[in-house]
Amino acid sequence: MPEGPSIVILREETAAFVGRRVRRVGGDGGGIDPQRMRGRAIADIRSWGKHYLVAFPGFALRVHFLLFGSYRINHRGPGTPRLSLGFAGGDELNFYACSLRYLEGGLDAHYDWSADLMADAWDPARARRKLRAEPDRLAADALLDQDVFAGSGNIIKNEVLHRIRVHPESRVGALPARKLAELVRQARDYSFDFYRWKKANELRSHFQVHTRSHCPRDGAPLTFRAQLGRSRRRAFYCERCQVLYG
User: What are the residue boundaries of the Formamidopyrimidine-DNA glycosylase catalytic domain, all occurrences included (predicted)?
Assistant: First the structure.
């Protein structure tokens, strides 16, 4: 599943389509009527967390790539796209294996931009308040909550918890105030590290625990859990240096 930094990169890669008129539509549609976009000019392209947003006057297309979604810019991938948007000169945007939905009206009515980890409007104080409101939640589940950390995914979760030395099964309410603040701060900081490494095609080389076998800090074998917490996502962590709070 693409995480928030990857969607920001997609937004940047497609920014030149803003102002261009959709000439052709294709694909199986995934439950929406693609013809609604035909003949309309793209007013804006934005992102919120893992959502890629193509805005038209009066409505927007939301693309969520789920677990296996992908995209192609100005060329086709294998198989039938879920949606294909064609423009003058043969340019096109193609989306595969994703969820599509129309959002009516302006995007500000649908999104809390202060929850987006990579947005200028990101509000860490609000994130801390949301976390304190659910003290029994596991730290691993909290980092995957899109209402708190929009854009955070499993890579960010595993890497941030290792970076701040917190066991994924720690209770949020048991974290010292300084550690809770560190969790919030590093969720954003790591997202921008992720973005920079992804653009340089070197993200995987910077993994400390995600898909790794030994802790780079102390050399201990890492624990792997195929399903952890309410989110039931994969977890990689070090029992030696990541402290279990609560």
Answer: 2-99
